Amino acid sequence: LLDALSEGCVGNQGEDEVTEGPLSSLTLQEEGNVPPSPKKKLPEELTEADLGEAALSSDDDTDEFQDARDKISPSSETGSNPVADASSSTNTTNNSNSSSADWAKYAKHIFVLSEAGKPIYALNGDEDNDQMVALCGVMQALVSYVADSDDSIRSIRMQDTVIVFLVRSPLILVGTCRPYLTPQQLTVQLTYIYNQILSVVTLSQLNKIFEQKRNYDLRKMLGGSERLINHLSNSMDTDPSFMLSSVRCLSLAPAVRDLVSESIIKYCGKKKNVVFSLVIARNQLVTLVRMKNYFIHPADLHLLFNLVNATESFKNSESWTPICLPKFESSGFLHAHVSYISEDICLVLISVDRNSFFELSEARVKILERLQRHNAITSITTALQTSEYDCQSLDLPEIRYFLYKSRTSAQYTAPTPALCYRDPHQLARLHSIFLKVQNRFLVASRPVKLCYFATSHEIILGWITQSFELFAVLPPTSTKISVLTAANKLLRWVKKEEEKLFILTAPTF
Staple 2 to which of 87, 139, 175, 364, CB 3.0 to 4.6 Å? Predict the structure, then answer.
């Protein structure tokens, strides 16, 4: 990393990824970063002419598609680089430190430090390590050096590595990875890490602490939350919901989903302090009920999912935990009553009142009784066992795998991958191509709405409209006619099954 800091070129990099839908009250991307919308809405059926105009790519494609704001910093073009000197002097120590070789084996690193250069978190390694302390000092010096020129450092790019900086005063977040992530996508991951920290320490607390003591060791307040950050970082590399800025819903009969929502409304609707209630089953959303005029952002839902998935103790008893949802309110805590109502089904009731644990515990008992009386628990358990599907069962043998996001509801669905993609490395390779295709949707200089990407192993069709986002994988021998026929057939199936696949109307208290 130190070599990278001295050899790379400095560039500006974009913020976050677009998020839409009724679950969302905010967006993760500034308006200026979104490619201009066409005057006419794309048709909901593909034609051969559309594919003829799509961006064509292959494995040996060497074009660099960068955000229009990615420009070389003026301060990096001329003059000496003080970081290079610091890097060369520090490298002598690094070569004698065995942890250097250990760091090299990881494809991704994430560091969090204070603006004073004090280490707070490292994805791989010990924050107290001398090498880590020296490295954080170099990163802080680089941020300060660029800031002194009335500029801000966003990314450093090299042939095989990218380093991204995200300054969120009083914190500095730095991520580095191999090229499977673009700077824009790594910035999104750093933003999630920052939000995860805010879920434990609110923004107002954070600012107050560092105003009083600039070199405060924030690890004292984050003690025990490292598992949440580690779990989140690992999930972002494998879970498509982060790439799509959406959540996956359990495929469920609408009548069962409505019954669960009605049960929550019946026993929580009159409790004025309950703002959100949701049911999660194996990392899939069963239902979400919210107070009128209040919305929950998908990024906040991801933090709730991460909290549930990373905390095994929730399965043993009812829990009461404070949590800040940064997109909802970054300056204060909400309080979550978390409990499992069956082995795989988790009920989360979120209140603004810190003293409402027993009140919500009583509501949980009544909700569970009603769900058991109407066999809803059994129906959800059955859906967990039977809701997985593959393209063969949909009479779409020509499609190997796909991701379909409903942009109006910020939810997505995906089948079980074909056998050739069930190996984790192959699926990771496929997701890296999805990221590359998605990046072309967001490029300001040459935005595309339809991307036909060909490799030696597969053909990938990327398609984005106002209502959906689609990534479909087909065999490399597929013709354009077969690609568009399969895509249109898939869209008709989604339209037919959308009531089971998605929550189309968000119930409210």
Answer: 87
> Alpha helices, DSSP H only, in 201-317?
203-212, 219-222, 226-238, 240-244, 254-268, 298-309
pLDDT at 451 over 70: yes
- CA dihedral (285, 321, 26, 115) in degrees, to 10, reads -130
**Contact indicator for 403, 471 with CB cutoff of 8 Å:** yes
pTM of the model: 0.82
| 469 DSSP β-pair partners | 405, 464
156, 182 in Cβ contact below 8 A?
A: no
Placement of tokens 């500095």 in the chain:
172
> Do 153 and 142 touch, CB atoms closer than 8 A?
yes
Q: Is the link from the previous residue into 170 a cis peptide, with omega within 30 of 0?
A: yes
Query: Tens of pLDDT along 385-399?
Result: 999 999 999 999 999
283: its two tokens: 């990392």
Contact 1, 103 (CB under 8 A): yes
Among 332, 302, 292, smallest CA distance to 239 is for: 302
pLDDT at 509 over 60: yes
Q: Do residues 296 and 325 lie in contact, with contact meaning Cβ atoms separated by under 8 Å? A: yes
| Neighbouring residues of 40: CB distance < 8 A, sequence distance ≥ 6 | none
**Tokens 């990875």 appear where?**
177
Between 266 and 33, residue with greater pLDDT:
266
Contact 129, 111 (CB under 8 A): no
